[in-house]
Amino acid sequence: MLILVRHGRTQANLEGRLQGRLDQDLDEHGRRQAVAVAAFVQDRCEVDFVVSSPLKRARQTAAEFGRPVEIDERWLELSYGEYEGTPHADVPSEVWSRWRDDPDFTPEGGESLAALDIRVRGACEELLARADAANVVVVSHVSPMKSAVAWALGVGIDISFNCHLDHASVCRIAVRGGRPILQTFNETAVIPTP
């Protein structure tokens, strides 16, 4: 099973900013989310391997699984280029339209969804045999997770704007007959209050 986990919340997430490659720590709530999502997954299955994006928020979430963590840069978040750190509301509407309508749109200094999709699908293909024999947790970010879901469904990355993933959410992709099968989408654990 391939178990995709989105990292917990950061201050930039709380403030409604495009985070992209900004390398922030989890905030206090995000740390609680990381603990809860690791327990949520481990209550349902034995975790054999943990893979993570190299960004701190993903590595901090991955550490809660209590296993060695393999770092794979292909699971990095989309680079928003000149818009990194920008509040969502301050991104011009025409930019949002271009992102929605054209997977090849690349903001200045950033990355296109199409380029992200190529790297994530490659990572998924490499993990397929392992995920057929073991439970592999991949801790990543919203855009790579949507790409992996699109890969499992056999559709294009253009579904990104038609689905939502919460912080510390889980998507499960089973392997049947050597093919990926999406089993669950956006599962979330109950986060304890302080």
What does this structure look like?
The chain is of the alpha/beta class and 194 residues long. The chain has a single domain (2-188), classed as 3-Layer(aba) Sandwich (Rossmann fold), CATH 3.40.50. Helix content is 37%, strand content 18%. The protein contains 6 helices and 6 strands. It has helices at residues 11-14, 28-44, 56-63, 93-101, 113-133, 142-153, and strands spanning 2-6, 49-52, 69-71, 136-140, 169-176, 179-188. Strands 3-2-4-1-5-6 form a 6-stranded mixed beta sheet. A hairpin with a 2-residue loop joins strand 5 and strand 6. Helix 5 (113-133) packs across helix 6. The longest helix has 21 residues, at 113-133. It is globular, with a radius of gyration of 16 Å. The model has no long low-confidence stretch (mean pLDDT 97).
CATH topology: Rossmann fold
Largest sheet: 6 strands, mixed
The fraction of residues assigned to DSSP E strands is 15-25%
Compute the number of strand runs: 6
**CA-CA gap between termini:** 33 Å
The CATH architecture can be named as 3-Layer(aba) Sandwich
CATH first level: Alpha Beta
Q: Helical content, roughly?
A: 25-40%
**Mean pLDDT, all residues:** 97
Strand order of the largest sheet: 3-2-4-1-5-6
Principal-axis shape: globular
How many structural domains does the protein architecture include? 1
Secondary-structure element order, as H and E?
EHHEHEHHEHEE
What is the number of helices? Answer: 6
Uncertain parts = none
CATH superfamily: Phosphoglycerate mutase-like
Class based on secondary structure composition and strand pairing: alpha/beta
Q: From the alpha-carbon coordinates, what is the Rg to the nearest angstrom?
A: 16 Å
